Amino acid sequence: MKKIVLLLFLSLFLASCGSSSSARKYTYKKKPSSSKPANIKKLSSSNSGKVSGTRAFVLDNAENYLGTPYKYAGNTPAGFDCSGLVCKVFDEEKIQMPRRSSDQAKQGRSISISEARPGDLLFFATSGGAAVTHVGIVHDIKTNGEITFIHASTSKGVIISSLNEAYWNKAFLFARSVL
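Request: output the structure for the sequence above.
Response:
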């Protein structure tokens, strides 16, 4: 009985921001380092001074939570899950977002990954299949085309990851802009 309870707890913990809605899967491919992606202006590895307005405020808000622990269903500085982080960061700019990542995936407008800009949202299927189960905020687009994003990781809390990482590349579904 204890093993079953432990297994159920671990399943819930690893499910993170699960939902039941399906989405079309897109593949993100790292651009060759010698070419600049189309439609993406050149950005340095740091966003300071490279984005402005609401996008800059959204990034500053998200960066303030780096290192915050993961907490299932969390949406406060005491702990966040992925969609809770997005809600909090956007709420600080008076932009209301739905609480679940699957509902957030319906907000704003669909954009191709080559159109993604800091502050846009990336959606993932972390449990296989095509259901949206995770969301992150685009942090930076490096000169080699690498896209980094801020999100709440179940194992490391709020961190910056890269779409070039095999796990995130495979799980990536699509991008949307709400800004």
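The chain has one domain: 16-177.
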